[in-house]
Amino acid sequence: MVTxxxxxxxxxxxxxxxxxxxxSTWILPDDLAVPDFPAxxxxxxxxxxxxxxxxxxxxDDQPTGLGMEFTTGEGLEVIGRxxxxxxxxxxxxxxxxxxxxxxxxxxxxxxxxAALRSAVVTAHLGIDFARPIPLGAVLELRSRVxxxxxxxxxxxxxxxxxxxxxxxxxxxxxxxxxxxxxxxHEHFEKGKDFVDGMPxxxxxxxxx
Length: 208
Ligand SMILES: CCCCCCCCCCCC(=O)SCCNC(=O)CCNC(=O)[C@H](O)C(C)(C)COP(=O)(O)OP(=O)(O)OC[C@H]1O[C@@H](n2cnc3c(N)ncnc32)[C@H](O)[C@@H]1OP(=O)(O)O
Fold this sequence. Notes:
Blueprint: H1 2-5, H2 7-24, E1 47-48, E2 69-72, E3 78-83, H3 97-116, E4 120-129, E5 138-149, E6 152-163, E7 172-182, H4 185-189
Antiparallel strand pairs: 1-2, 2-3, 3-5, 4-7, 5-6, 6-7
Protein name: Acyl-coenzyme A thioesterase THEM4
EC number: 3.1.2.2
Domain Thioesterase: 93-164
């Protein structure tokens, strides 16, 4: 069918089939456990601290990083924001897709940490790029844990432009599904010879 249509139309059909395939592969397991709401949760609107000051996603001691800032949302939702700086450019005038993926990675990791109070690392991430995102846009990513199975944490996130060019809080410009794995201190001990700086805060779970 795809070969029969050919040309530009072939490309379009292939892209649509790919989108359907990608979306349909994210199927939550039947034995998913929804985490309990933390008893000490501060409620919506509270700042969520960076987990590591040198982190490319959220660190305030990482000048080239995204500098994402997080607050708690409703329920177990975590809301992250950052402005698309010129250095994040891919195609002329628009964000690089890998930067958006990085932002989703960070946002969904923070949602895991807020819900489970455990360190996690990313095992799998899938992104749907729905709209081009211009430089100067302020992106808001709303992320949540959908549930867990043993150490596996299933997450979702959506991005919207809430300020700057093409802002429209009703339009989802990208979405993401991700599998994170709960890890212990030993995971980060493997990086102690390479670490840049010394973790000091409560959220710095590295054993170095
Ligand atoms: C204060 C803190 C801040 C926390 C806040 C953090 C926010 C930071 C956000 C950035 C996060 C990152 O970028 S982290 C950096 C990028 N990620 C990484 O570097 C991870 C590299 N990969 C690994 O280190 C490893 O593969 C692990 C840890 C993910 C898993 O290894 P493991 O510990 O030996 O566990 P393993 O038995 O293999 O897997 C456990 C279960 O997960 C499943 N599983 C494992 N990988 C996959 C996979 N890709 N796709 C599907 N399923 C998978 C297995 O089948 C198994 O299922 P079952 O048998 O139970 O059914």
